Inverse folding.
């Protein structure tokens, strides 16, 4: 899932303080699961924002809240189409994709981010989320026994480990696991350590953030006249 | 502050609420400006309930749960303590003194302790002055009444 955390209230307040009516929009998908922008957090941020605006002398700003199922898909944004016209700003508690989807859908309404989108990751333990995928577009997890050196090695080394792996931890921080220690341990448990003896070829970064935003197109799923935008 | 601060006490049914009852039975004196809301457990208290209290204009909020290790639902009071820390952080961001919110632990047999807690909170909040978020007494009183109804519904097994 996409993991995010909320911006500080003063930053949010300063973004929206010159508007008259603000709709705080939560998202019921990834950011609900990572407890950053679901229905509950939308209520918390809406309440905190109203109080903060009042203390800043902007009590007249109306702040309302609602949560939709998914902000990153136009069909789910439909439910907002009647409502957004009553507001001059939307504070999105979706990830960066959600914010941009709302901005695209409502060209005459200011759209602001209420969260800082962090990464694609997993719930490591209750209340702790960890980054697992960099979305590089050229997955080599098979080669590394299910542990991604691009995301989890601080140096993104494809041929590791480096000389600074100590007791399973990275030199960057005692709290950061050495990805290469994890790769080695896993190779050992699968009895495939010998596979690590061959040199890994450099990553093809052309599939990553090279040449602007990427698209995935499935022609068989495209509807005539509604294909990918130019 | 010329008048006494208005303090909301979010009380667990199994301890603080019973302690408050005992304080009353014992004819103990404590500041009369505290309004008691009964919850089935402090673990039921969501962060937005606490923020809603401040938004409605109350001057202080105390959350009173069971002694640590003695929660009827095992760890509701421990969760409440963490949530309160988070709400304190949000209050600080907003510009409200985090000291206006505090968590206390006591058992159902501690009527005198309940009276002490209320006095302690009153002494702490009074010097901070009235909440800058108060717009009208009526709005605040209506808000408190509404929250009391919601809390009581939770005790009765609703939402």
């Amino acid at each position: 899932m996409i993991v995010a955390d909320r911006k500080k209230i003063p930053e949010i307040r300063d973004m929206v303080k010159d508007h008259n009516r603000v709709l705080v929009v939560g998202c019921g998908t990834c950011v609900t699961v990572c407890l950053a922008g679901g229905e509950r957090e939308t209520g918390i941020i809406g309440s905190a924002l109203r109080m903060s605006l009042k203390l800043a002398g902007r009590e007249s700003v109306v702040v309302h809240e609602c949560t939709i199922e998914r902000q990153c898909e136009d069909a789910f944004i439909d439910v907002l189409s009647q409502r957004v016209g009553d507001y001059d700003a939307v504070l999105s508690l979706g990830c960066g994709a959600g914010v941009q989807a709302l901005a695209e859908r409502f060209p005459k309404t200011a759209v602001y981010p209420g969260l800082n989108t962090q990464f694609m990751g997993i719930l490591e333990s209750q209340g702790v989320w960890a980054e697992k995928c960099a979305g590089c577009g050229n997955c080599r997890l098979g080669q590394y026994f299910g542990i991604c050196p691009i995301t989890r090695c601080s140096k993104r080394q494809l041929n590791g480990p480096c000389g600074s792996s100590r007791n399973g931890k990275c030199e960057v921080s005692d709290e950061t696991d050495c990805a290469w220690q994890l790769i080695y341990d896993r190779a050992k448990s699968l009895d495939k350590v010998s596979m690590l003896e061959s040199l890994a070829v450099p990553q093809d970064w052309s599939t990553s953030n090279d040449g602007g935003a990427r698209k995935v197109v499935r022609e068989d799923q495209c509807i005539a006249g509604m294909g990918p935008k130019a | 502050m010329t008048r006494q601060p208005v303090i909301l006490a979010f009380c667990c049914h199994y301890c603080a609420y019973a302690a408050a009852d005992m304080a009353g039975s014992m004819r103990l004196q404590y500041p009369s400006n505290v309004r008691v809301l009964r919850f089935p457990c402090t673990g039921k208290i969501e962060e937005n309930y606490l923020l809603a209290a401040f938004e409605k204009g109350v001057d202080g909020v105390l959350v009173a749960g069971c002694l640590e290790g003695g929660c009827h639902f095992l760890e509701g009071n421990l969760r409440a303590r963490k949530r309160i820390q988070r709400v304190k952080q949000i209050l600080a961001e907003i510009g409200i003194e985090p000291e206006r919110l505090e968590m206390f632990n006591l058992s159902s047999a501690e009527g005198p302790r309940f009276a002490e807690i209320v006095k302690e909170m009153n002494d702490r909040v009074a010097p901070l002055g009235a909440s800058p978020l108060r717009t009208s007494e009526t709005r605040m009183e209506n808000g408190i009444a509404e929250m009391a109804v919601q809390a009581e519904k939770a005790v009765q097994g609703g939402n």
In short: The interface with chain A takes residues 46-48, 51-52, 54-55, 90, 93-96, 132-133 of chain B (CB under 8 Å).
